[in-house]
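Hi everyone, sorry if this is the wrong subforum. Our group has a chain we'd like a structural model of before ordering constructs, and none of us has done structure prediction before. Sequence below.
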Amino acid sequence: MMREETGRKTRRRRKAGRHVLLTLALLLGLSGVMRLSGYGIAIAQEVNELLRGTSASRDDRAACTTEADIEVVLTALQAREQKLIENETALERRLKTLAEADTALDEKLQALVAAEDALAATMAAARTAASDDLVRLTTLYENMKPKQAIPLFEAMDPEFAAGFLSRMKPPVAAQIMAGLDPQAAYAISVVLAGRNSDTPTN
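Answer:
Right subforum, don't worry. Here is the predicted structure as C-alpha coordinates:
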Protein backbone atom coordinates (compact mmCIF):
# COMPACT_ATOMS: atom_id res chain seq x y z
CA MET A 1 0.00 0.00 0.00
CA MET A 2 2.78 2.33 0.88
CA ARG A 3 4.46 1.70 -2.44
CA GLU A 4 1.25 2.40 -4.39
CA GLU A 5 0.75 5.74 -2.61
CA THR A 6 4.36 6.67 -3.23
CA GLY A 7 4.02 5.83 -6.93
CA ARG A 8 0.85 7.89 -7.19
CA LYS A 9 2.52 10.92 -5.59
CA THR A 10 5.47 10.60 -7.95
CA ARG A 11 3.18 10.44 -10.99
CA ARG A 12 1.27 13.50 -9.78
CA ARG A 13 4.49 15.49 -9.34
CA ARG A 14 5.61 14.53 -12.82
CA LYS A 15 2.28 15.62 -14.34
CA ALA A 16 2.44 18.89 -12.42
CA GLY A 17 6.03 19.49 -13.66
CA ARG A 18 4.93 18.72 -17.21
CA HIS A 19 2.06 21.20 -16.88
CA VAL A 20 4.48 23.88 -15.65
CA LEU A 21 6.94 23.19 -18.46
CA LEU A 22 4.16 23.24 -21.03
CA THR A 23 2.84 26.52 -19.62
CA LEU A 24 6.31 28.07 -19.75
CA ALA A 25 6.78 26.86 -23.31
CA LEU A 26 3.46 28.37 -24.36
CA LEU A 27 4.33 31.67 -22.72
CA LEU A 28 7.73 31.79 -24.42
CA GLY A 29 6.14 30.92 -27.75
CA LEU A 30 3.53 33.65 -27.39
CA SER A 31 6.25 36.14 -26.45
CA GLY A 32 8.28 35.18 -29.51
CA VAL A 33 5.27 35.47 -31.78
CA MET A 34 4.47 38.90 -30.35
CA ARG A 35 8.03 40.08 -30.88
CA LEU A 36 8.15 38.68 -34.36
CA SER A 37 4.85 40.27 -35.19
CA GLY A 38 6.18 43.64 -33.90
CA TYR A 39 9.32 43.30 -36.00
CA GLY A 40 7.20 42.30 -38.93
CA ILE A 41 5.07 45.38 -38.58
CA ALA A 42 8.15 47.63 -38.32
CA ILE A 43 9.77 45.93 -41.30
CA ALA A 44 6.55 46.27 -43.26
CA GLN A 45 6.42 49.98 -42.44
CA GLU A 46 10.05 50.51 -43.51
CA VAL A 47 9.46 48.64 -46.76
CA ASN A 48 6.38 50.75 -47.46
CA GLU A 49 8.36 53.94 -46.81
CA LEU A 50 11.17 52.77 -49.07
CA LEU A 51 8.69 51.88 -51.77
CA ARG A 52 7.02 55.26 -51.42
CA GLY A 53 10.39 57.05 -51.57
CA THR A 54 11.44 55.05 -54.58
CA SER A 55 8.24 55.80 -56.37
CA ALA A 56 8.53 59.50 -55.46
CA SER A 57 12.15 59.64 -56.70
CA ARG A 58 11.10 57.88 -59.86
CA ASP A 59 8.34 60.46 -60.31
CA ASP A 60 10.87 63.27 -59.76
CA ARG A 61 13.28 61.75 -62.23
CA ALA A 62 10.48 61.37 -64.68
CA ALA A 63 9.51 65.01 -64.10
CA CYS A 64 13.14 66.18 -64.63
CA THR A 65 13.70 64.20 -67.79
CA THR A 66 11.09 65.87 -69.94
CA GLU A 67 12.32 67.73 -73.01
CA ALA A 68 11.10 71.07 -71.70
CA ASP A 69 12.97 70.66 -68.41
CA ILE A 70 16.12 69.54 -70.19
CA GLU A 71 15.91 72.56 -72.47
CA VAL A 72 15.50 74.88 -69.48
CA VAL A 73 18.53 73.34 -67.76
CA LEU A 74 20.62 73.54 -70.93
CA THR A 75 19.60 77.16 -71.46
CA ALA A 76 20.59 78.03 -67.88
CA LEU A 77 23.94 76.26 -68.27
CA GLN A 78 24.63 78.01 -71.57
CA ALA A 79 23.77 81.39 -70.03
CA ARG A 80 26.07 80.69 -67.11
CA GLU A 81 28.86 79.58 -69.44
CA GLN A 82 28.40 82.74 -71.52
CA LYS A 83 28.55 84.87 -68.36
CA LEU A 84 31.76 83.14 -67.29
CA ILE A 85 33.26 83.73 -70.73
CA GLU A 86 32.30 87.41 -70.57
CA ASN A 87 33.81 87.77 -67.10
CA GLU A 88 36.99 86.02 -68.23
CA THR A 89 37.22 88.28 -71.28
CA ALA A 90 36.71 91.38 -69.15
CA LEU A 91 39.39 90.19 -66.73
CA GLU A 92 41.81 89.56 -69.58
CA ARG A 93 41.15 93.08 -70.91
CA ARG A 94 41.81 94.57 -67.48
CA LEU A 95 45.02 92.59 -67.10
CA LYS A 96 46.13 93.69 -70.55
CA THR A 97 45.35 97.33 -69.71
CA LEU A 98 47.29 97.05 -66.46
CA ALA A 99 50.23 95.46 -68.27
CA GLU A 100 50.22 98.24 -70.88
CA ALA A 101 50.03 100.89 -68.15
CA ASP A 102 52.90 99.22 -66.31
CA THR A 103 54.98 99.14 -69.48
CA ALA A 104 54.20 102.81 -70.20
CA LEU A 105 55.15 103.73 -66.63
CA ASP A 106 58.45 101.87 -66.94
CA GLU A 107 59.19 103.65 -70.20
CA LYS A 108 58.40 107.04 -68.62
CA LEU A 109 60.61 106.25 -65.65
CA GLN A 110 63.44 105.22 -67.95
CA ALA A 111 62.97 108.41 -69.98
CA LEU A 112 63.00 110.46 -66.76
CA VAL A 113 66.20 108.77 -65.58
CA ALA A 114 67.78 109.38 -68.99
CA ALA A 115 66.69 113.04 -68.89
CA GLU A 116 68.15 113.45 -65.40
CA ASP A 117 71.40 111.87 -66.53
CA ALA A 118 71.51 114.13 -69.58
CA LEU A 119 70.80 117.20 -67.44
CA ALA A 120 73.50 116.22 -64.98
CA ALA A 121 75.95 115.72 -67.85
CA THR A 122 74.97 119.08 -69.34
CA MET A 123 75.42 120.87 -66.01
CA ALA A 124 78.75 119.14 -65.49
CA ALA A 125 79.83 120.16 -68.99
CA ALA A 126 78.64 123.70 -68.35
CA ARG A 127 80.55 123.86 -65.10
CA THR A 128 83.62 122.44 -66.80
CA ALA A 129 83.25 124.86 -69.69
CA ALA A 130 82.79 127.81 -67.32
CA SER A 131 85.79 126.72 -65.31
CA ASP A 132 87.81 126.29 -68.47
CA ASP A 133 86.73 129.74 -69.64
CA LEU A 134 87.75 131.28 -66.34
CA VAL A 135 91.10 129.54 -66.54
CA ARG A 136 91.66 130.80 -70.07
CA LEU A 137 90.60 134.37 -69.20
CA THR A 138 92.75 134.34 -66.10
CA THR A 139 95.72 133.15 -68.14
CA LEU A 140 94.95 135.83 -70.75
CA TYR A 141 94.88 138.62 -68.15
CA GLU A 142 98.06 137.31 -66.57
CA ASN A 143 99.85 137.43 -69.93
CA MET A 144 98.71 140.98 -70.62
CA LYS A 145 100.86 143.89 -69.66
CA PRO A 146 99.67 145.61 -66.46
CA LYS A 147 98.96 148.85 -68.31
CA GLN A 148 96.61 146.95 -70.65
CA ALA A 149 94.89 144.93 -67.92
CA ILE A 150 94.36 147.79 -65.41
CA PRO A 151 91.68 149.65 -67.47
CA LEU A 152 89.78 146.37 -67.96
CA PHE A 153 89.75 145.63 -64.22
CA GLU A 154 88.63 149.15 -63.42
CA ALA A 155 85.66 148.66 -65.77
CA MET A 156 84.71 145.31 -64.23
CA ASP A 157 82.33 144.81 -61.32
CA PRO A 158 84.37 144.54 -58.10
CA GLU A 159 83.19 140.95 -57.40
CA PHE A 160 83.96 139.88 -60.98
CA ALA A 161 87.39 141.52 -60.88
CA ALA A 162 88.10 140.00 -57.47
CA GLY A 163 87.34 136.56 -58.88
CA PHE A 164 89.97 136.94 -61.56
CA LEU A 165 92.54 138.48 -59.27
CA SER A 166 92.13 135.64 -56.76
CA ARG A 167 93.01 133.16 -59.49
CA MET A 168 96.02 135.04 -60.76
CA LYS A 169 99.56 134.63 -59.61
CA PRO A 170 100.17 136.95 -56.64
CA PRO A 171 102.93 139.07 -58.31
CA VAL A 172 100.77 139.75 -61.36
CA ALA A 173 97.69 140.47 -59.23
CA ALA A 174 99.76 142.88 -57.07
CA GLN A 175 100.90 144.87 -60.11
CA ILE A 176 97.31 145.24 -61.33
CA MET A 177 96.03 146.25 -57.88
CA ALA A 178 98.82 148.83 -57.58
CA GLY A 179 97.82 150.46 -60.86
CA LEU A 180 94.05 150.56 -60.19
CA ASP A 181 92.11 153.63 -59.14
CA PRO A 182 92.11 153.79 -55.32
CA GLN A 183 88.34 153.44 -55.10
CA ALA A 184 88.32 150.42 -57.45
CA ALA A 185 91.24 148.85 -55.59
CA TYR A 186 89.44 149.42 -52.26
CA ALA A 187 86.18 147.82 -53.52
CA ILE A 188 88.05 144.79 -54.85
CA SER A 189 89.98 144.49 -51.58
CA VAL A 190 86.71 144.51 -49.61
CA VAL A 191 85.32 141.67 -51.77
CA LEU A 192 88.51 139.64 -51.39
CA ALA A 193 88.56 140.19 -47.62
CA GLY A 194 84.88 139.22 -47.38
CA ARG A 195 85.52 135.95 -49.17
CA ASN A 196 88.23 135.03 -46.68
CA SER A 197 86.38 136.27 -43.58
CA ASP A 198 84.80 132.84 -42.99
CA THR A 199 88.14 131.04 -43.15
CA PRO A 200 89.20 129.65 -39.73
CA THR A 201 92.25 131.40 -38.30
CA ASN A 202 93.17 128.73 -35.75
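For your construct planning: Residues 99 and 190 are 64 Å apart (CA to CA). Confidence is low (pLDDT under 50) at residues 33-40, 54-62.
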